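User: New here, any thoughts?
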Amino acid sequence: GGAPAAELNRLEAEVAELEARLKRVPFLDDLDLRYRHRVYVPQPIARAVMFCLMDVSASMDERKKDIAKRFFTLLYLFLSRKYEQVDVVFVRHTDNAEEVDEDTFFHDPKSGGTVVLSALELMHEIQAERFPMTQWNIYAAQASDGDAFGSDAGKSSRFLGEKILPVCRYFAYVEIPDGQDARQSSLWVEYDTLTAASRGFAMRRVCERDEIYPVFHELFKKETA
């Protein structure tokens, strides 16, 4: 079922506060301001695409999917306030990835193993075909419990760093472990190598539903700073 109206109102208010902070950020640095009569400033792109990537293998139970849905909803609210048009692309994966509609993404059970790379490859393919970065602001949010086997984690991290992050304005990875499991997954360890080199990438762990807003706020401090 849907979230209570009071909770949605609270989330919208918090997103509005993030948006207000964003509007206070100067778009030109001091050098540009000094030479602004010579600087060509392109018109901002008024539309964004949001890729939602989710592991739907057997280990991603309903609790984890619910946490992921809340995160994706917050991101959509945030982007909807910032851009005139927001398209959403849902990519789910087990050991292979597919683009689906929202209802299938969240509610249609699917079984199989886990190959994270398949989702990243499909996102890249869709973005290249339908959402050129000259015409779209590209955002992505990935939710997983971090289960990745064999060489998948390393391959996924390399593909993310080489193919996905260069075209994204922002990529957020949310890992949803079992309970309060403190162990770092192989995917987390590999993705963590990308955080220092990319301003447009951030990752956090979320164990409970009530952690979603604080984690969202933390992730998007970068985007609003």
